[in-house]
Amino acid sequence: MLYALLCYNDEDVVWAWDKKQDGEVMQRLGVVRDRLEAAGKLGPSLRLLPTTAATTFRKSDPPLVIDGPFAETKEQLLGIYIIDVADLDEALQVARDLGEANPGGAYEIRPLAVYNTGSPEAVAKGVATA
Amino acid sequence: MSHDLAWINAAISAARPQAVGALLRYFRDLDTAEEAFQDACLRALNNWPRNGPPRDPAAWLIMVGRNAALDGVRKRSRQTELPPEDTLSDLDDAETRVAEQIDASDYRDDVLRLMFICCHPDLPATQQVALALRIVSGLSVKQIARAFLASEAAMEQRITRAKARVAAGDAEFATPGPVERAERLAAVAAMLYLVFNEGYSAGDNPARAQLCGEAIRLARLLLRLYQTEPEIMGLLALMLIQHARTPARFDAEGQIVLLEDQDRTLWNRPMINEGLALIDKAMRHRRPGAYQVQAAIAALHARAPTPADTDWAQIDRLYASLERLTPSPVVTLNRAVAVSKVAGPEAALEMIAPLADKLSGYFHFHGLAGALNLELGRHAEARTAFDRAIALANTAAEASHIRQHLDRLMADHPPPDERAATRAK
Fold first, then answer.
1. Nearest to A13 among B10, B270, B280 (CB)
2. Looking at B85, B102, B119, which one is the last position of a domain?
3. Which of A4, B131, B153, B413 has a 20 to 30 Å separation from B234 between CA atoms?
């Protein structure tokens, strides 16, 4: 069974950690991650940049581009895409294309700070499930 | 889950601008607001490790701080006892109520007001920075003194005087209108960039270098409150991209490494990516401003995998628009660097020649003049310019950087009289 763990915390605090504090947390997380990865149980994991770097693409008619993170509480988080594009304009084009295929709701477009692909077994399982 | 002292300190400093800002709105007096906040922090240090951190630390600190200050007033007037510490442990309901009462727009204006009072036009730049570090960031006088290489007593006096100055002026407590808010944002942006530059120009003084991180933290906070302001996006992007180069800016001996000589693999990529994302967002607004243009210039350097890949023609165009937005001889001087790459050192020298009077006391003017003359093989002119630059250097690292140029120049092309002396030996 594949699960996603969605990480929530206070970004004002987390992004104000100094290098040492950040390093210590990452080191502790690394121990857990390494164990999972060795057991073939870790899929892609990533760290997002702060919400101030986010742009929201509302799939209304016409679509609306809004500065900042997705802020409504009416909708729920249903899925995630990771895309590799040149800039925000290209990311917005992807959102537009996806939005035409599946109207309604919104995409929050947030740059990544860190991206790890995970263990081959878990990635292969992902392909099999899909 | 461990909520150790480090976590609590981080939560308190993250909540500080909002909490002190709100307490300032209640009490309309900076000293009372700061005292109330201090009081709330002491109680938090006592309370949070035992009862776990509150869901909304800012709301907790505002409510406890307000109650503590009101209790203090009551105690002084009627000698009634303070409520026992433990009654403060269960704040959940009250805290939620307060959090609901504090409208998001009040929060925004509270934080902006707190930052804005540090931008008093009568205060010289360094005092604005010191005051902001004290009341917005909550750094201790000792920390600030260390950053400015001043004695603690002198810094204490400077901050007290600056506070008296802003207290004498009438801080505006009514909700600002759109024009006023825009003016405040512009003043605060300039002040945050001053804080950043204090850190950026610090060389290898770590106490001062941490001001860069502090300026970035406050700019992120400001942008979170004013999410659609392209100039705040530009300011944050500019600071992030410049700060990302920190690990490559000095060598092991603390000497400056020029942009073109820096090891670009040492640049902090996530930080650059955050900056690039922000500048992309800002440009969509089509409301250019000085911070956005400077961030766009920094972004072009960040996007070039090697110095040879730098898009100097585009940088030249961006500096030209910066000259229109904020005309200044220093901007023209910076543009001349781009011109030297696009059109050669001769054209760049021509461009900076008219600046000689205005920038005669400016280190970078003579540094660039020296480098351009050196490139053209005009050794005597280069030597004169480098000598002037050394005399005007602001830090030891700047001086020794020019010294290296000069030493190399002297070794390769000794001046005529010394050459004669050498031959005579």
1. B10
2. B102
3. B131
Q: Does B209 fall in a domain?
A: no
* Helix B290-303 with B312-325: angle, nearest 10 deg: 170
Q: Which of B100, B26, B104 is nearest to B69 (CA)?
A: B26
ipTM of the complex: 0.89
Total length of chain B = 425
Q: Inter-chain contact A52–B278, Cβ cutoff 8 Å?
A: yes
Nearest to A15 among B210, B220, B233 (CB): B220
Residue B123 lies inside a defined structural domain of this protein: no
Residue-number span of the structural domain to which B74 is assigned? 5-102
Indicate the residue among B102, B126, B150 that finishes a domain: B102
Calculate the alpha carbon distances from B397 to B218, B231, B292, B375, B420 in Å: 28, 32, 29, 22, 32
Q: How many CB atoms lie within 10 A of CB A124?
A: 11
Q: A-chain residues within 8 Å CB-CB of B210? A: 18
Note whether residue B129 is domain-resident.
no
B284/A10 CB distance under 8 A = no
Distance CA B88, CA B422 (A): 83
Closest-CA residue of B relative to A12 is B14
Q: What is the largest CA-CA distance in chain A?
A: 47
Q: Tell me which chain A residue has its CA closest to the CA of residue B219.
A: A52
Give domain status of residue B95, yes or no.
yes
Considering only CB atoms, B277 lies closest to which of A13, A49, A114, namely A49
What is residue B415's DSSP assignment?
-
Distances (CA, A) of B374 to B31, B341, B368, B382, B385: 56, 14, 10, 5, 10
Are the beta carbons of A12 and B14 separated by less than 8 Å?
yes
Q: Please report the pLDDT score of residue B79 as a whole number.
A: 52
Chain A nearest C-alpha distance from B292 (Å): 15
Chain A to chain B Cβ contacts (< 8 Å): 66
The DSSP annotation for B103-153 comes to -HHHHHHHHHHHHHGGG-TTS-HHHHHHHHHHHTS---HHHHHHHTT--HH
Q: Tell which wins on pLDDT, B235 or B210.
A: B235
Number of domains in chain B: 2
Contact criterion met (CB < 8 Å) for B13 and A51: no
| pLDDT range class, residue B419, cuts 50, 70, 90 | low
C-beta atoms of B270 and A114 within 8 A: yes
Q: What is the pLDDT of residue B171?
A: 61
The average confidence (pLDDT) of chain A is 91
Which chain B residue shows the shortest CA-CA distance from A9? B55
Of the listed ranges B115-129, B301-315, B369-383, the one predicted with least confidence: B115-129
